[in-house]
Amino acid sequence: NKLNRMRTLRRVSVLIRKGVRTYQNTLHNKDLFYRIHPSVSQALVQNKPVVALESTIITHGMPYPHNLRTAKEVEEIVRAEGAIPATIAVIDGEICVGLSLDELSHLAKSKNLLKVSRRDLPYVISKGLSGGTTVSATMIAAHRAGIPVFVTGGIGGVHRDGQNSLDISADLTELGRTPIAVVSAGVKSILDIGRTLEFLETQGVCVASYGASKNFPAFFTPNSGFTSAYNVQNPSEAAKLIAGTLSLGLRSGVLIAVPVPEEHAAVGQQIAEAIQVAVTEASSKRVSGKDVTPFILQKVNELTLGKSLQTNIALIHNNAKVGSQIACALSEQMR
Ligand code: PSU
Ligand code: MN
Questions:
Q1: String of b and e for 13-48 (b: at least 16 CB within 10 Å)?
Q2: Are the C-beta atoms of residues 153 and 185 closer than 8 Å to each other?
Q3: pLDDT by residue (tens digit) across 268-298?
Q4: What are the pocket residues of ligand 1 if the criterion is a CB atom closer than 6 Å to any ligand atom?
Q5: Which of 243, 252, 259, 289 satisfies CB 3.0 to 4.6 Å to 217 for a cystine?
Q6: 113 C-alpha vs ligand 1 centroid, how far in Å?
Q7: What global pTM score does this model have?
Q8: What pLDDT sits at residue 130?
């Protein structure tokens, strides 16, 4: 009955709050090689909502000056929703959590910066190099700093023909081993979306679509034809799901898949054709390893005459808004 259900819910939320506190106490904020921006560490100490942001999207995902403008706009959106932005990158061998405007603009303008994934971190640190962090490296840093919510555009996945090449993004295994909620517009159809979802299931990642349906979005378009295991209808439901993950001590992450708003969705057919061309060209030019994703992103943008870039920016804005609302709801639930 209703009363029992309410008691259950109250009991669960008390347990979850305790669990998340225990989890947060086990984090190390003062690690060597980490530099936490004062605005971020202050917010964390005061239990205010913080949103982590990645930087490969700045160094490798978008051309200048769109990358810089978008990075600034995203931080503004996070602030407008009442959260603190923490863009993460490696600068001169230091993992920086929260960047100054100068640092953002340096990342956006410099050519030849590294794309830093989990496996690259030790090398980049040991050489004192700089680079944009991918979803996997950003998750590691955000988790270490104690930030449970991370917003990006799209995550990496299983590449087409990945069952043969084994080109599977480290983002997926990271989601299996690092307890962070990643808010993204799903994965691009440059990838094999069905196999990506299968792999996430194997990794134990809780995948939930944001909104009224379980449709799993395909980045440029709201529906990939595949479905998530669950859907969450609002920031508070999403926050509870995340809190549940943290307090259970599962150590795996959550993927919140936010469909691009219908009015910004790209013309599906045009994008699909551009992707086909780009994927074929990547394989005929023997582009491999970490260069595949940036190569295809740039090619698709070129072929759609910037239309894909417009959609890309619009969906990141939307993810930033939704992700910030989730971070605020989570910090509210922790009070
Ligand atoms: N997908 C996008 N834009 C991006 C990326 C992916 O739509 O910028 C970047 C992200 O940083 C992601 C990385 O973590 O590419 C994945 O690269 P790879 O496929 O090499 O794992
Ligand atoms: Mn790869």
A1: eeebeebbeebeeeeeeeeeeeebbebbbebbeeeb
A2: yes
A3: 778 888 999 999 999 999 999 999 999 998 9
A4: 54, 56-57, 61, 134-135, 153-156, 169-171, 188, 219, 290, 293, 297
A5: 259
A6: 15
A7: 0.93
A8: 96
Based on the residue annotation, tell me whether 302 is a catalytic residue of this protein: no
Cα–Cα distance, 53 to 138 (Å, whole number): 7
Q: Which atom of ligand 1 is nearest to the CA of 61?
A: 8
Q: Does pLDDT of 128 surpass 80?
A: yes
Catalytic residue among 188, 240, 299, 321: 188
Question: Which ligand sits nearest to residue 295's alpha carbon?
Answer: 1
Distance of CA 287 to the CA centre of its chain: 24
Query: What is the share, in percent, of the chain residues with pLDDT greater than 90?
Result: 80
Q: Is 214 a catalytic residue?
A: no
- Distances in Å between the Cα of 269 and the Cα atoms of 225, 266, 272 are 15, 9, 5
* Coil, strand or helix at 250: coil
Please give the distance, rounded to the nearest whole angstrom, from the Cα atom of residue 155 to the centre of ligand 1.
6
Q: Residue 29: pLDDT above 60?
A: no
CA of 169 to the centre of ligand 2 (A): 5
State which of 155, 296, 313 you would mutate to test the pocket of ligand 1, scoring each by most atoms of that ligand within 8 A of its C-beta.
Answer: 155
Distance CA 223, CA 206 (A): 19
Distance CA 125, CA 105 (A): 21
Evaluate whether 134 touches 142 at the Cβ level (below 8 Å): no
- Active site residue: 54, 75, 81, 174, which one? 54
Ligand 1 atom with the smallest distance to the CA of 60 is 8
Answer with the residue of higher pLDDT: 64 or 24.
64
Structure tokens at 218: 């395909």
Percent of the chain with pLDDT over 70: 98
